[in-house]
Amino acid sequence: MSTPRTVLLTGASGVVGRSLLRENTGPTDGREAAGLRIIAASHSAPAPEAERSVPCDVTAERFGLDEESYAALAGEVDVVIHSAGLTEWGLPAERYQPINIEGTRRVVEFAERAGAVVHFMSTAFVAALADTAPLPLGEGNVCRNYIESKHRAEELLRASGVAHTVFRPTNLVGDSVTGWTSQGQIVQLMSDWIGRGRAPFVPAHTGIRMDFVPQDLLSKAVLRAIQLGDDQGEFWVTYGAEAMDVAACLQVVVKHAAARGRDLSLPPVVDPASLDPAELARMAPMTRSYLSVLRDVSEVTACSGGVLPTSMPELRERYGVPQVADTTAYLRSLEYATAHLS
């Protein structure tokens, strides 16, 4: 199919947005660029990689534009990549409503006006809320309100009748080749904490996989879907059964620590069910917080069956997503974070 004329990218200044822009114009390592015409919908921060930007507030009617400007934008756009969203965990449910849910509703309105296809960036963690989930996700889980907001946004899209795809990435790490990322995320933050020897133990359910995906794999899949004119499908951007286990993940942290001159002893892995709340309460606030997040993320994976659903074979075959060892990409991401994000 012919390449769509123009793409509107929401969340252009975020981790996913900037990765998409970088992948579209071609990173410095010589990889082929997608070459689509992308308009960055900018709100609170600019996207340095954007060749063209328009001021947009996806939570507002007509994106905060006057009718003439909104109509002109709708008349130009063929495709929307909806990446804008609040991704921070642990916030009250009402904090996610304006952008994650109502923002998606505004994107639907725009897509209807423009006759555009929507490619929505969700999360693989919605698997924990499936009717078939082997365990119920705890009401107090730090990720729950965020996951529910993404789940509701997916339902809104399905009910709208707008042509769309849903991409569900797991936790993202840096570029698979360079380790580059526009900003640190939870994986790098937690890994640095463990790598400094500050974790008394690592709470993890037996048999779970530590599923991290390089951000450029997601970007390649989304941009290729646009190039092919795809307007339907749900894709789990995860490694699934290929993902490293907890022991392999910790070995990467130990290897990274050694390269920095640290002799790190592996922290023991502990079943979260055995944790004593009173013992946790006696720990330093930061230690308690980090361990609680690790425990809750492990619970999300356990509620997803221990291994996240995956579409990786299809993504490789249809969209040309490269086969990259997750341990290699993880290490490169840690190296980049140490050199550039500390």
What does this structure look like?
The chain is α/β, with parallel strands linked by helices and 342 residues long. Helix content is 43%, strand content 13%. The strands form 4 sheets. Strands 3-2-1-4-5-6-11 form a 7-stranded parallel sheet, sandwiched between helices. Strands 7-10 form a two-stranded parallel ribbon. The protein has a two-stranded parallel ribbon with strand order 8-13. The longest helix is centred in the first third of the chain and has 22 residues, at 93-114. It is globular. The protein starts with 6 loop residues before the first strand and ends with a helix.
Supply database-style keywords.
single chain, alpha/beta, globular, 342 residues
Q: Short description, anyone?
A:
The N and C termini lie far apart (44 Å). The chain has helices spanning 15-25, 67-76, 93-114, 144-160, 186-195, 215-228, 246-259, 277-282, 285-303, 312-319, 326-340; strands at 7-10, 38-42, 53-55, 79-82, 117-121, 164-169, 171-173, 202-203, 209-210, 212-214, 234-237, 244-245, 269-270. It contains 11 helices and 13 strands.
Itemize the secondary structure elements and their pairings:
Layout: E1 7-10, H1 15-25, E2 38-42, E3 53-55, H2 67-76, E4 79-82, H3 93-114, E5 117-121, H4 144-160, E6 164-169, E7 171-173, H5 186-195, E8 202-203, E9 209-210, E10 212-214, H6 215-228, E11 234-237, E12 244-245, H7 246-259, E13 269-270, H8 277-282, H9 285-303, H10 312-319, H11 326-340
Parallel strand pairs: 1-2, 1-4, 2-3, 4-5, 5-6, 6-11, 7-10, 8-13
Antiparallel strand pairs: 9-12
Helix pairs in contact: 1-6, 2-3, 3-4, 5-7, 7-11
